[in-house]
Amino acid sequence: MNTVKNYILGNWETGSGSEYTARHAITGAEFATVSSEGLDYKSILDYARSVGGPALRAMTFQERGRMLKALALQLTSIKRQFYDVSWATGATKVDSWIDIEGGIGNLFANASLRRQFPDLPYYVDGELARLSKEGTFVGHHIMVPRHGVAVHINAFNFPIWGMLEKIAVNLMAGVPAVVKPSEYTSYLTEVMVKAIIESKILPEGSLQLVSGKGRGILEHVDFQDIITFTGSAATGQSLRGLPHLNERSVPFNLEADSLNAAVMGPDVKPEDPEFALFVRELANEMTVKSGQKCTAIRRAMVPEHLLSSVQQAVISRLQKTVIGDPQAEGVRMGALATHDQVGRVEAEMNKLMAEQELVFNPELNLVGATGSGAFYSPKLFVNSDPFSNTKVHEIEPFGPVSTLMPYKTIDEAVQLTAMGRGSLVTSFVSKNTSDIVAFTSEAAAYNGRIHIINEKMAKESTGHGSPMPLMKHGGPGRAGGGEEMGGKRGILHYLHRTAIQGHPDDITAITQQYQPGASRPEAMPHVFRQHFEELEVGATVYTAKHTVTETDITNFANVSGDNFYAHMDATSLEGTIFEGRVAHGYFILSKAAGLFVEAKKGPVLLNYGIDECRFTKPVYPGTTIGVKLTVKEKIDQEKRSEDDVAKGIVKYYVEVYDNEDEVVAVTTILTMVKKLDQS
User: What CATH number is given for 260-467 in this structure?
Assistant: First the structure.
């Protein structure tokens, strides 16, 4: 029998004894023992903090992002081996695809977020604050990686995705992780961690694995650490309530069981595509992963006059579901992950039967398998009075079980949704825009995500139950109140925000972004003659000056086609803020470029774009303008191929001023600049 090991302190270790014996979900055979007894959790956490943490914090966001991308590519190249083990969890090929490739997809998605972060180990947040009259004392904020460890306690249903979605975020932030998957399916997580460790892509100490029950793992966490928990609400709340976590102010992110809903809009008719889409989503959410998803539809609300029609349509679709060994031809639904899970689902389902009618309860007719596996057939309930019979809003059988219920108005549908006391996701199926807006605006407060389904988006939709890496995953109330993912915001969760105050020169040095009021030494040579590595933040080109004429304005209008009255008709200015014909804002920018551009071929490859453009003062004929072009920020870029040009993005702060030394226009331009080092 295989022994599932723990990866701790740089080694693979076996726990003492046996905390759990895993049985194959399809065959029922015992095949793996799991234990974390005897592990020194204080040393494990200290190892992450002292070895993994410094290594990750020494990397910039760009380097961490490239690291995640490299890991994702490596795991993709060997993904077949994970499918072979995933079968033991009862998963079909589709179920495994969600877990394996969905998990790897999280690495790719979070790696792409590097483009929203600087080429620094920390993040510069917000805008500069002037704290003094003369501007010599200013403030800013930076967000730095916590000097702790992320402790991830994960559920049994997605042994790979559940881990990768979390570590992708903490690694991007520069924080190491200790992962404790459910002992029920930790044998699959172990295979993935082995592949990650063998790749040698991550710094040592940045990822450790505790495969068993992990008793005592939270005893040694402190305020710099972060805990995430995915599992039952009861267990999560119990852990979050541990006195020492509150005493030490340890952040705790909870994603718990969730009574998610799907609502068929009142406009839907049986012949509409939306009717079929609703039926398909409900049936899929009951059978994909055998209903063992935190996002699965547990409550389905339909207009009361369509209740019978929807019931018949859902049953008809469920009757076609082939259950059995996922390796057998035609099987579309496998087993529950464990035999223990069968008993849990049955117990919860029996509680629901006290208040509602079980309308679909087929006998198991297995293909390619015997009753030794953890199989469970789909169950469909109807609750005719969901406002009075409320157990459906309280109890979640974590399996292929769902309940249909009627509603009369959108307000009632919102009320029923809210009775779940907080959900990860609710789908609203409708093509009626006013109904969509009405439902979403009210139901959003009770959900982490609202998924709107209709024929217009169905072709590309990933479905009700698929969280997207760059979108919020988490929900209020019963769902835990946290955010498992959430794009950039998820990464920021692992960073600590600190105010920095001082002279603009010092704030510029910390942020590596030019801050107004900082020193601006003249660039020698011209910045457009310098390669990426040679450019210094704050270096400035002071241009020659130009006096704007009426001819300039007329010529620009003729070339651009912009004949707006303020530029061309001095007789139409009564009641406006203008004292006479005014120069086009875009003429000012164009002329500014003409003043600061070095025309000869050099390291500058192209103009990449414009950010934050503002016209702050009218420019009239006779006004003399000059430009200060300052290196604002440098962002490194990786080569996309061996033949690609090594380059980086340089942001320039453009300040156009007049003969009274007042600013008339400011913007940030982005250029792509070649590197000296082309290796």
Answer: 3.40.309.10
- Name residue 628's beta-bridge partners: 542, 655
Q: Is domain 520-674 in CATH 3.10.129.10, yes or no? A: yes
Residue 261 CA to residue 282 CA, distance in Å, equals 10
Angle between helix axes 307-318 and 273-287 (nearest 10 degrees) is 50
Q: What 3 state SS string does 294-315 have?
A: CCCEEEEEEEHHHHHHHHHHHH
Pairing, β 11-13 against β 6-8: antiparallel
**Residue range 86-130, pLDDT digits in tens:** 999 999 999 999 999 999 999 999 999 998 999 999 999 999 999
Count CA within 13 A, CB hemisphere, residue 525: 8
Domain regions of the chain by residue span? 2-256+489-496, 260-467, 520-674
Residue positions annotated with a catalytic role: 255, 294
Take residue 395 and report the two structure tokens written for it: 């109890």
Whole-model pTM over 0.85: yes
CA distance 506 to 531: 25
State the Cα–Cα distance between residues 5 and 2, nearest whole angstrom.
Answer: 9
Does residue 629 contact residue 521 with C-beta atoms inside 8 Å? Answer: no
Tokens of 459: 């072709």
Measure the CA–CA gap between 345 and 382, rounded to whole angstroms: 18
Strand order in 495-502's β-sheet?
Answer: 123-130, 138-145, 495-502
Residue 129 Cα to chain centre, angstroms: 29
Q: CA–CA separation, 178 vs 189, rounded Å?
A: 13
Computed on alpha carbons and rounded to an integer, the radius of gyration of the chain in Å comes to 30
Q: Could you report the per-residue pLDDT of 454-463, keeping only the tens digit for each?
A: 999 999 998 9
What b/e string do you get for 521-532 counting C-beta neighbours within 10 Å, with b at 16 or more? eebeebbbebbb
Q: What is the DSSP letter of 324?
A: B
- Answer CATH for 2-256+489-496 from 1.10.730.10, 3.40.605.10, 3.60.130.10, 2.40.30.10: 3.40.605.10
Give the bridge partners for 110, in sequence order. none
Strands (E), 504-646: 540-542, 546-547, 604-615, 624-636
Question: 68 Cβ partners below 8 Å, 6+ apart?
Answer: 107, 108, 110, 111, 168, 171, 172
Residue 192 identity: M
